[in-house]
Design goal:
10 helices; 243 residues; single chain; alpha/beta; 39% helix; Rossmann fold; globular; transcription; Arc Repressor Mutant, subunit A; DNA binding; 7-stranded parallel beta sheet
Length: 243
Amino acid sequence: MLASERQQALLALLKQNGALRTRDLARELGASEATIRRDLKVLSERGELQREHGGAILPEQEPPYSIKIGQNQAIKEAIARRALSYVEEGMTIIMDSGTTTLALARLLSGMRLRVFALDLGVAQALAQGHTEVWIPGGLVRNGFYSLTSQWALDGLAQIKADLFFLGADAFDLSEVTNHTLEEAFVKQKALAVARRTLLLADASKFGHRAVARVTPLSALYRIVTNLDHPALAQVIPVEVVHA
């Protein structure tokens, strides 16, 4: 198979599956992993796919942060106010990346808490007061400000938290999903080290599915949202808010 033919076949596989590991692509296309990595590099440089640790996904369709920050702001603030009721002085909390968790960070700033922020904007908002703010380290995702990479995973592995406030790119009746594998790995580690996880997500995130699985809904403590959906409430406890 010519390189150009193999690359088109590779893209076709990604369109069918959303995301694939390098080893899986090599097996499907009958090529070595080294050859597939070269193909991924070429296609990534052309903007036809996005390389992730150990594989690739189609170019993400995530809205720019500058757009996300202005969307559904009243609802995000209402979700943040309800989420605040779960926080007690002295807690250790992990705050995920995202504009809804940013709204909560602004409310938490100044409280007597230890907070591990997975987002530079969230950390900055928290640090305006006297709250103890930690950043576990890692690679900053340009344009979105979240922390990823093994450094972030290693930092989270050292702690135990009372609460993890999880953000989401998408969720449905079965699971929470994310646009990138790298962010999903960090969220999964935070879930593992927190006693309880609350998903903070407005209704616009529901009914969609991004390429990277984060967690089944059954692993969550509850969801704080403006979505009033009877079927969802049968799966997981839901706190429904109104702007």
